[in-house]
Input
Amino acid sequence: MTSSSGSPIMRAPSHAKKGEIIEVRSLIRSPESTGFQKNKQGRIIPAHFIQTVTVTFNGKPVSHFDLGTAISKDPYLAFRMKAEKSGSLKMVWKDNKGGRWSATAHITVT
Amino acid sequence: MASNMTSRRTFLQTVLVSGTAVVTGAAFGGIGQAFAGDVQGWPKEPFSQHALAAAMTDCIGTTKVPVTSKITLRAPTIAQNGGSVPITVSVDHPMTPDDYIQTVYLFVDHNPDPLAAEFHFTPANGQAYVESRIKMKKTDHVRVIAQTNKGVLMASKPKVVKVTIGGCGG
Output
């Protein structure tokens, strides 16, 4: 929710052959603080991290990632998907402070 | 196995929902955070375990999983920065509606919370494959357990990553 989070990026090929397995890469800004560390004043820095990432294609579920605090700052995620038909790929990120971001890309399958 | 998972999740969601309700009520009083923001359905229980065996038991109900060469776990032998250790996991297994890798669990044995992530897949993925970057407190084992939609479990060989500078701010 703070300005240090967000700006999601998703990269997927714009064209693919039917049946081809394509790779999708993504990045989002998030402090990924664990809740274990203290600031210079000795106060605990509250946990602030992405908890779920959901991937859908044309609205149908593809992948769902549940993430803990061990994911590095500004989480990077890449995964693969089988190109069956043209459509819209969507990723939704949610963090433990009510933050929600999404990114979409259109893939043309021939 | 699968029914265990379901009941745990159902339980968890119930807890989360009621937790949210409590917080909503308390928010008017200007207090209350507790479960405030946990995303609904996020499995808080295994992510909050501080020991590998407990986290594993929460996830899959056992700590004894046969090791297979079907899982490829790639991580650097030496990571200069424990704050960002690149990890790649792929599982050589069919991804058909009848038989597919449903979940890949990623653990770091001695991190404060050993469960790093649960990656859930469907046949639409075509391949159970994921790349990310994780934090490691110190030189440690990284390990992966994969579970099929039928509940079959398989483990990667644990991979040692030598961490020069820990990734937990220490």
